[in-house]
Protein: Diguanylate cyclase (GGDEF)-like protein
Amino acid sequence: VAKREGGARFRLFQPEMGEQVLARQRDKTDLRAAIDDGQLVLHYQPIVDLATSRVTGAEALVRWQRPGHGLLGPMDFIGLAEETGLIVPLGGRVLADACEQAVRWQEQGRTVGVTVNVSTRQLSTSGFLDTLDHVLDNTGLRPSGLTIEVTESVWADEVAMQALMQIRETGVRVALDDFGTGYSSLSYLQRYPFDIVKIDKSFTAELGESGRTAGVVRCIIDLTEVLGANAVAEGIETPAQADWLRRAGCGFAQGYLFGKPDVAENWDEQPSVVWAAKRG
Ligand code: C2E
Ligand code: MG
Ligand code: MG
Ligand code: MG
Structure:
């Protein structure tokens, strides 16, 4: 019966629309399987202390090694994951893998913490705090070794916002990603504490070209300091950008200048990467 109904409904669509629906269904099925089959790959990008040039952290950025399609970037599948709810198991996998990697690095005498992107949708599911607890327990990573990155969309979701503040109380750090590109709100920024504000690469890309942009970036850095948070500049590709940011008082940066996202194994062999030494 269901099949007959499906067929009847299908006739209301144009054939191309039917194909799109089918393709989407296939993508969803494949993504579901990919999460369990280990097809998700984490690349890590160094986060550098601008004062010392040492790596103090690494952002985990997910890719999908999809059979027959090559290595897909997050832009190709995170949207689908969010729409279908697959972001919950996907994000859980990413969180567990990244925390495991952080412990491995720390066992090797490196202080790097990991930074994980978390979707608002994922944050607002009731099980997220339990998942986080579980992952920290299982891996043995101290909460301070983990940073959760969220975007400004979190401010529109009361449940996600509550979860975020609870997470912060456990000692896990919270970063505001892509600051200035979404629905930026000074009132929210003032009301809800963040440990880190990430300045989006659309700003840093224009640093050398526009005095206006430079002024705005300077203000974001100052604002971050006033709020007691650390600023991380994203998308740094040239020494000139890094110099400018250091002089403007920006503490940390990330970008191709310091390292492109890559698998952890390749990172370990990078002589140009200066790791922060073990504390005390
Ligand atoms: P994001 O968190 O803002 O990550 C920064 C993006 O900028 C990454 O793209 C990174 O590869 C790229 N990038 C870094 N340095 C440079 C540079 O110097 N120049 C340029 N042009 N680009 C640079 P990527 O890996 O494609 O990730 C895109 C977005 O996908 C991320 O933006 C993040 O919002 C999302 N994402 C990645 N992994 C996850 C995940 O595990 N979960 C969720 N929910 N979202 C994720
Ligand atoms: Mg991020
Ligand atoms: Mg960003
Ligand atoms: Mg982004």
